[in-house]
């Protein structure tokens, strides 16, 4: 066994098929009937400070572009969470 000190982790499991690999988190976050992690529109799970993206959500769309979009939403939501902001900070303003 090896212990690696980290501040965060991305868990990837190569299992094939369309069932998400969620055994590692099933006692921590809410799952739907098909074992997908349930998230809100900001990719936040039922556990405060935990976000889920991509195939682990078990959406109908198994495409990298969906996971990338989820990742962008989650990253902006995490930044909002960490800095206790009420809205997402953007570097552009539409007039």
Which oligomeric form is depicted?
single chain
The N- to C-terminal Cα distance equals: 56 Å
Per DSSP, what share of the residues sits in E-state strands of 2 or more residues? under 5%
So what's the overall shape?
A: globular
Largest sheet descriptor = none
Q: Ranges with pLDDT <50 over ≥5 residues?
A: none
CA radius of gyration: 15 Å
Sequence of secondary-structure elements:
H
Number of separate strands: 0
Mean pLDDT metric: 85
Estimate the helix proportion, in percent.
10-25%
Structural class: mainly alpha
| H/I helix tally | 1
Please explain how this structure is put together:
By secondary structure, the protein is mainly alpha-helical. 20% of the residues lie in helices and 0% in strands. It has one helix and no strands. The longest helix has 19 residues, at 64-82. The radius of gyration is 15 Å and the shape is globular.
List keywords for this structure.
95 residues, mainly alpha, 1 helix, 20% helix, 0% strand, globular
Topology:
Elements: H1 64-82
Summed up, what is this model?
This protein is mainly α. The chain contains 1 helix and no strands.
């Amino acid at each position: 066994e090896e212990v690696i000190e980290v501040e965060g982790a991305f868990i990837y499991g190569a299992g094939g098929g369309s069932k998400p690999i969620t055994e590692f988190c099933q006692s921590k976050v809410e799952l739907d009937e098909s074992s997908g992690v349930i998230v809100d529109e900001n990719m936040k799970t039922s556990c405060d400070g935990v976000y889920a993206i991509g195939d682990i959500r078990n959406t109908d769309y198994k495409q990298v572009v969906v996971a990338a979009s989820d990742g962008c939403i989650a990253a902006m939501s995490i930044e909002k969470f960490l800095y206790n902001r009420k809205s997402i900070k953007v570097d552009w303003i539409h007039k």
